């Protein structure tokens, strides 16, 4: 059985108009929401074997902050350029190419690709995975990552800061 956690980066800053989209950092709300969601994952006993992040600044920063909450060293997070604004098909190719030894992976990325991927993987109509939102999807019949495919997963949870009353404002 394989499990995927799709985590959309935290809210990013548009303060510096000179920065490229790739280089935008987290804003104040993102810096509050991301650790909260990391604590929620810790409470839910989510312990991914493999960590992969888009190399965009806001996604990488999100991954590092979640890793801190889950007591995982940032050196265990793989940066991947091809996750930056990736289409669902590209994201699926990345997933299908993962190490067989890992039973679970957390992937930090961007919309609209993550929302579209989540919808295609588990046939649940996600309208939007909000910033700092995370979806857990399980593949009970997948022995290897190559077995993971569209329409074969089951959503096990969908959480976001707005879904949790104790989230920071």
TrEMBL record:
It comes from the Bacteria. Pfam families: His_Phos_1. Gene3D superfamilies: Phosphoglycerate mutase-like. Substrate binds at residue 58. CDD domains: HP_PGM_like. This is Histidine phosphatase family protein. It comes from Xanthocytophaga agilis.
């Amino acid at each position: 059985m394989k499990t995927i956690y799709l985590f959309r980066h935290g809210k990013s800053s548009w303060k510096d108009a000179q920065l490229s989209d790739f280089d935008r950092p987290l804003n104040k709300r993102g810096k509050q929401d991301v650790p909260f969601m990391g604590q929620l994952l810790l409470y839910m006993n989510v312990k991914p074997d493999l960590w992969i992040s888009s190399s965009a600044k806001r996604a990488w920063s999100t991954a590092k902050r979640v890793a801190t909450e889950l007591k995982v060293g940032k050196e265990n997070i793989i940066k991947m350029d091809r996750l930056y604004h990736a289409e669902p098909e590209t994201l699926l190719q990345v997933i299908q190419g993962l190490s067989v030894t890992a039973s679970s992976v957390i992937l930090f990325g961007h919309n609209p690709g993550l929302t579209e991927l989540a919808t295609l993987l588990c046939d649940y109509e996600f309208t939007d995975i909000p910033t700092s939102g995370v979806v857990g999807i399980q593949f009970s019949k997948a022995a290897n990552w190559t077995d993971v495919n569209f329409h074969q997963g089951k959503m096990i949870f969908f959480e976001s800061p707005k879904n949790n009353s104790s989230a920071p404002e």
